[in-house]
Structure formats: structure tokens, C-alpha cells
């Protein structure tokens, strides 16, 4: 089973055996954003640094950046959520992934949280 | 931080709260989209107790501060008007209703202290009732939720008892829909709200209130109008009484008359954008590559399933159909000037 990691910016990272990481925003993040109406994703081929703003989600009221939780090169973006942004509200941690990154250093995922640590982190926020 | 008399109920209903004009207010309950739809198709209930209810008895004194025909406002009727400064800028926009023995004004939350100070500085006695509750019941089914209001037409005002609660009711609102604004004593606020919810109204927050008013093309004080804005530039000519302009006996009459005669450099317009990305407040507006103005309010319009904005542009570019570019994240998004409102009003005239 694929191991899922989490960032403090509320992204999830699923690392495949091929070293490609699939990245999305957490259910907590979509809940906080509210009804999502627009998504802008990075172009494949773009080289991104850790914590760089790479995507945008807009709810009815406000815009928010999505950050690259790790450094790498974008290999794919999920057109399905561009066409139907509401998918991010209903499938944040499954079908509504944002983009895939070929990581510069796959071992860097160890600097992220596992689900238990992320749940604990969420508990410290409110 | 202030709270409204409905604070406990709002929290019990699961509101997500937000600070607005010094008040802890509900931003949303079930979600902005669902609440917006409930208001366009059913009945939504908004806690707007942050707005300031005030009573004024000196009609002539009040008239000197506004460009509307207040002396001609019949008992049982309400009118939208403006407090203007010496340069013809807008101190606040407000509703004023004639209850026979007195006028009732409803002031914007963020401006009520400024308004009262301004009125008192001009010798007006103002009674403030800022701890009262104010509910906005809005939507095509509002009349079914409040059969007590059946005798009122759009912009009528009356004192009514609702289930034994003494209320001041106007048939008006800030969503473009039919509906009522209902004031009552603060301690009766939760009981009144619970009654209207039990009758089928859906709780709604400031998020939906903003997307609804923008679709209805209604300006928001502090975003779309302020002390530097001429009512002529803001498209509020309907609030300028011809009779009052002729006599010119109100503060700001000179600058307003000159603006009407000579036009203004900028005009507030509605803009419909292509695509789905909203353009928010302060977004730069360009025409043929040159900066011509700025967005003052922008939202994704749930009814239209498209982004819309209000903004000021050079006056010669205010005609519907004019192609503009809005600069969002350094990219020009195409849009065009459209006639306001974006979504037709649905008032019970």
C-alpha cells in the first residue's frame, strides 16, 4: 500500500514506487476553503522548489495558494479538477489530486508527517 | 469584539465565524453555494444585527444631510438614501423608513459610529438602538415564511407582532430577492430567528450575503463606495431627488449637481469575466493594454456559474459590451462591461 505523507500547508503526498509523488490538498483544507469554484495547476515540465506556490484554488469568497511540499519537476496535472473544481470538495484525498512531481530526492518525504502526526498537528490549530 | 444577540444561536447552528466591522459574525453555515441557492429559490435567514438601528425625529434636520426626498416619504414607506459630505462623497448609504412619529434609519455596521457623530455634529438628535436584533429574511418563499408581512409591498414599513414579539418590519433587503428585514429587541432575537427557521428558512451567513448582493449589483460600503466616491460615479443617481437638487439645500449638493451636469472621470460598472477565475478587489482593469481602473468587489457568481465584478473604469468605457482585461496573477483575463444587475431583481412591487 502506498504510504501517504502530509505537510503543514495541508497537502498530502502519495509516493509511488517509481519515485513519482501525487499531491493534493487534505480534506481539512477543502473543508476550510469552502465551495471551490476554480483551480489553476502548474504546467508539466515546470521545476518547482519546496514550499513554492504552484497552484491556486479559489472558493466563492477567496483565493488560496497551494505549495509544492517537496522539490521536483511537474510531470502531470489533473485536468479533471480544472474542468470540475467541486471535485476537490468531494474527493480531496482521492480522485481530486492536483499534480504529480518527479521528486529531486524521494527520501525527502521523511521530513513530512504521517497521518497520525498530521491529525495531531490539526489538533494544535484550533 | 462585539457579538450580536443571535451569537449563541449562530454557534449552535454550526456557523463558521468571521470578524466583520468589529463584530464576530457568521460567515457560513452549510456553505456559501447552498445558502446562496436557498435564497434564490427558497428562503434564507441572515443575522444582520451588526447594522445600526437609529431613530431620528427631526425630518428637516435629517434632510439637510441627504439628497433624498425625505419630506416626501409617506408614513409606512422606506427609501434608500445617502449621507453625503461637503465634497459630495458618501459617508454612508442607508435605508430610512417613515413610521409617522419618527424616522428609522438602518446604518452600516462599520459606519454607524461615524454616521451618528456626523448627524449629531449637525445638531440632529439621534437615538441609537445598537443592541437590537435585525434579521433579513430573503428569497421567493420569504412571504410564505412570514405571512404576517403579506400586507407589505416592496419598500413598505410597519410595526408588526410576530408570534407576540414586537417587530419593526420592512419589505426590503440586500439580495435582489423579495423579502423582509425585521428588527426586534435583542432579547427577542433568538426566539424570532428560531420561529422563522422552524417555518422553513435556512440560516445563511455573510459569505452568501456578499455573493447575493453582488449578483444584484448592489454596492457595499467600504468596497464600492466611500467618502471619496460621488454617487454619480457609483451609479446611484436614483437616490438623488430632482426636487432636492433644484433647491440644493443639502450638504454636498454643489459637487453632486456639478457631477451630474459634467460627468465624472470614472464610473462604476459590472464586469462579466470569461472562464472561471474570479477577479478580486483591487484587481487592475485594462483597456487596450492601458490601466483604466480597478475592481472594487469580485466574486464567483453561483447563480450564473461565472465570475463577476464591480469596478470603476474611465467613464468613456462604461458602456455595456466594452471589452476589458482584468489582471489576475499577472495574466489578463478577458471580460466585458454588462448591464447591472447581473441577476434580475425579484421584488414584490
Protein model, in words:
The complex is a heterodimer of chains A (126) and B (349). Helix content of chain A is 20%, strand content 35%. In chain A, a hairpin with a 4-residue loop joins strand 2 and strand 3 (20-25). With 126 residues, chain A is of the alpha+beta class. Chain A has a single domain (4-116), classed as OB fold (Dihydrolipoamide Acetyltransferase, E2P), CATH 2.40.50. The longest helix of chain A is centred in the last third of the chain and has 9 residues, at 115-123. Chain A is built from four helices and nine strands. Chain A has helices at 27-33, 79-83, 87-90, 115-123; strands at 4-6, 11-15, 20-25, 36-40, 47-48, 53-59, 63-67, 72-77, 99-103. Chain B is of the alpha+beta class. Chain B folds into three domains: 7-48 and 132-215, Gyrase A, domain 2 (2-Layer Sandwich); 50-118 and 230-264, 2-Layer Sandwich (Alpha-Beta Plaits), CATH 3.30.70; 265-349, Elongation Factor Tu (Ef-tu), domain 3 (Beta Barrel), CATH 2.40.30.110. Chain B is built from nine helices and 19 strands. Chain B has helices at residues 7-12, 32-41, 59-63, 112-121, 142-145, 189-198, 206-215, 242-247, 253-262; strands at residues 16-20, 23-28, 44-47, 52-56, 78-84, 90-98, 103-107, 126-128, 133-138, 157-162, 165-170, 179-184, 202-204, 266-273, 284-287, 290-301, 306-314, 323-328, 331-338. In chain B, helix 2 packs across helix 7. The radius of gyration of chain B is 20 Å and the shape is globular. The chains are: A alpha+beta (126), B alpha+beta (349). The interface between A and B is medium-sized, with 13 and 18 residues.
Q: How is the CATH topology of chain A named?
A: OB fold (Dihydrolipoamide Acetyltransferase, E2P)
List the chains of the largest interface with their residue counts.
A-B, 13 and 18 residues
Low confidence ranges of chain B: none
CATH superfamily of chain A: RNA polymerase II/Efflux pump adaptor protein, barrel-sandwich hybrid domain
Task: Assign the CATH topology of the largest domain in chain B.
Answer: Gyrase A, domain 2
Please provide the count of β strands of chain A. Answer: 9
First-to-last CA distance of chain B: 39 Å
Tally of distinct domains of chain A: 1
In DSSP terms, counting alpha (H) and pi (I) runs of 4 or more, how many helices of chain B?
9
Rg of chain A, alpha carbons: 13 Å
Low-confidence stretches of chain A: none
Distance between the termini of chain A: 31 Å
Number-wise, the strands of chain B total: 19
Shape of chain A: globular
* CATH uppermost class of chain A: Mainly Beta
Structural class by secondary-structure content of chain A: alpha+beta
What structural class do the secondary elements of chain B suggest?
alpha+beta
